[in-house]
Structures are given as C-alpha cells and as structure tokens.
Amino acid sequence: MILEQALIVMLTALACLPAVMASLNALRLLLIPSPLVQDEIALCQLRRILSLSHDMEVDAHQVSFIYHEEEARISLVNGSLILQPGTQIFLTELEQCTFSVSDGVLYLHTGREGESHENALVPLS
To answer: What is the pLDDT of residues 8-24, one digit of tens each?
Structure first.
C-alpha cells in the first residue's frame, strides 16, 4: 500500500516536471537585464564620476578632467567607452560615440546596432 502511494506520488511529480522546467526557463529570461538597463546603470556611474570631477575639457571624441586629484579621460576605445588611466568600461559594443556641450550641459551621443542615443551627463560650471 505504501509502495503504491509512493509510486503514484513519484509518477505525478515526473508528469509535472516538464511544466515546472518550462516555467523556470521563462522566469530566467525575465531576470536577464536588458542592454538598456545595463546602459542606464553605467551612465549613472559615469555621471557620479563626472560630478565629482573638475577642470573638464571636452572635444568631440573625449572628455578630459581631474578626478581624485589625477588626470583622467573618457573616450571610445575599440568600441567601448572607457575611463583611463586604467580600463574601467562603461558601455560596450558601440559603433559611434561623441561628446558635445549644449546650454552648459555635457552630452554623450552613442550609436549601437543602428540606434542613436543622446544622454545628458552633467552640467558644466
């Protein structure tokens, strides 16, 4: 009797297993952050660094500044937006990246997979 009940429970669990696995797979896909979310996180980090910096010099291809009393620059290197010295990477797989200043605000213009984005970074003083 107990053996029969255990066998029924195991067969029922085995029958439900494919549905449970399919549901877990769907949930896994929801938990993977989209590239846009990752970009927003990177832009927040970049804004923080730039807001703590001074003596900014902006040209179309890079921004130079003093951060923690050291000279630093942000530029596009091999398709990635990188803070140097060092190699802190903010955005990846970029096809184009330029900087501009408009109305006293530093802007980042990026292009990836045929889409263009313009992001305000920090006000310049």
So the answer is: 877 787 787 777 777 77
Sign of CA dihedral 42, 48, 52, 57: positive
Least-confidence region, from 3-12, 69-78, 106-115: 3-12
DSSP 94: -
Radius of gyration of the chain (CA): 24
- State whether residue 7 is helix, strand or coil: helix
Cα 83 to Cα 48, 65, 67, 69, distances in angstroms: 13, 11, 11, 15
Handedness of CA 114, 90, 101, 64 (dihedral sign): negative
Give just the sign of the alpha carbon dihedral 22, 23, 26, 27.
negative
Give dist(CA 50, CA 121) in Å, integer: 8
As given in the structure block, the two tokens for residue 83 are: 């803070």
The tokens describing 4, both together, are 């029969």
Neighbours of 46 (CB within 10 A): 21
Q: Is the model's pTM score more than 0.85?
A: no
- Give the distance from CA 20 to its chain's centroid: 31
